[in-house]
Amino acid sequence: MRSTYKDNRFLDEDYKHTLEGYKETDPYYYSVYCLGEWGVLGQTIFDARKVSQRLTELAGPVKRGEFVFDTWYSNDANQVLIDDNSIRWVETPTGPIQIYQDVAPNSSYVIGADTAGEGSDFNVGQVIDYATGNQVCTIRGQMDEDIFAKQLYCLGMYYNKALVSIEANFSSYPIRELERLRYPRQYVRQSEDSFTHKIHQSYGFKTSSVTRPLVIAGLVEVVRDHVQWIHDKDTLNEMLTFVRNEKGRPEAQMGAHDDCVMALAIGYFTRARTGPREGGEELSPFVSVGKSRLKAFEAKGGSW
């Protein structure tokens, strides 16, 4: 006799809702881990046919390069800061930034970022248009964290002060550097202290056993329904090697990378749970990761 999560009367309704959502966003995960069916390992969790077809359609970036800038000393902050008026784009054939759609006036953008961690060589940022869902730009390179943070600062300012959502698990340095540089818009997460029940607010996206499956499932849905949104070759190639390990956990194959995949997943997650600026007003960049973690998502109709 086999039981499933539906038979567990101790599960809260939020968690049951999360598991039930995999029926549509990740049928493989739902059948194996929610219903207890046997699964097949070693296959990409993304639609390989659609990803491969999309790779044949790519036109490449419209421009490639990096940002240069001047700095100034702020007596008030007692810090060396970037002079926003000095930020300028420099074309270089090997630059870390590839632009697929240039910035549009009055458009809002979100940047999902993944820092180089253990077994990873690249710092990656993915720029997404809030309105269209299009991946419009990537930054990907083997660079020191301070350089990555400064390029992210310039990239965010270039894309109309984009909301920047950086993965906070491995290193918080880029997050703290953006804060030091006074970048105006960073993603803020909320969590509830289990002892005091006070709400804590922190910059950056925290990957956990709850959030990781959610962001990956969201990206699976994007690829399934809107693969035309994705324009970057490195990102699509990573999807073809993003498979389930022997325990069924989605991850990069041995020797492959998942920086682009995770940065894009974080970007779409952030886009779904926040909103663009409307009429000069900032919609809340907060998201709860406690029991109410899905309320904001459900309020938006559950759409990525």
Describe this structure in words.
The protein has 304 residues and is α+β, with helices and mostly antiparallel strands. The chain is built from nine helices and 14 strands. The protein has a single domain, classed as Nucleotidyltransferase, domain 5. The protein has a seven-stranded mixed sheet with strand order 4-1-5-8-7-6-9. It has a three-stranded mixed sheet with strand order 11-10-14, with no helix packed on it. Helix 1 packs parallel to helix 6. The longest helix has 16 residues.
Core attributes:
304 residues, alpha+beta, Nucleotidyltransferase, domain 5, seven-stranded mixed beta sheet, three-stranded mixed beta sheet, 32% helix, globular, disordered C terminus
Short description:
With 304 residues, the chain is α+β, with helices and mostly antiparallel strands. 32% of the residues lie in helices and 21% in strands.
